[in-house]
Amino acid sequence: KQATHTVTFAQLITPDGVNHGLHVFIVPVRDPDTLVPLPGVTVGDLGEKMGLNGVDNGFVIFNNVKIPRENLLNKMADVTPDGKYVSRIKDQSKRF
């Protein structure tokens, strides 16, 4: 109940509506001052487990959440300021 950001695997959809598949993003999920979930974000606890109760598990649901292109972990691909997708991996079947 303290995390303000997540590292999330999600579909990258550019402004032209093209889906470029699964990419990794840093996504803010809570207000850092109040810890209240941000608009479009639902977070919850998974509760007691049969074992490993020392491991804190939860869930996050995103509903139409948009993040800036700067939040893309972009070692292999990026989105230019004008919204163009570029990737060092030319063969789409070899991306994630």
Structural features, described:
By secondary structure, this protein is an all-beta fold. It has one domain: Butyryl-CoA Dehydrogenase, subunit A, domain 2, CATH 2.40.110.10. Helices cover 0% and strands 36% of the residues. It has no helices and 6 strands. A two-stranded antiparallel sheet has the order 1-2. The radius of gyration is 16 Å and the shape is globular. The chain starts with a strand and ends in a 9-residue tail after the last strand. The mean pLDDT is 89.
In short:
The chain has strands at residues 5-13, 19-28, 41-45, 58-62, 77-79, 85-87.
Helicity level, as a percent range? Answer: under 10%
Number of helices: 0
User: How many structural domains does the protein architecture include?
Assistant: 1
State the strand order across the main sheet: 1-2
Helix and strand succession?
Answer: EEEEEE
Detail the poorly predicted runs. Answer: none
CATH class wording: Mainly Beta
Give me the CATH architecture, please: Beta Barrel
Shape: globular
Gyration radius, to the nearest Å?
A: 16 Å
Distance between the termini: 30 Å
Mean pLDDT, nearest integer? 89
- From the helix content, strand content and strand pairing, which structural class follows? mainly beta
The major β-sheet equals: 2 strands, antiparallel
% residues in beta strands: 35-45%
Please, what is the CATH homologous superfamily? Butyryl-CoA Dehydrogenase, subunit A, domain 2
DSSP strand count: 6
Would you give the CATH topology?
A: Butyryl-CoA Dehydrogenase, subunit A, domain 2
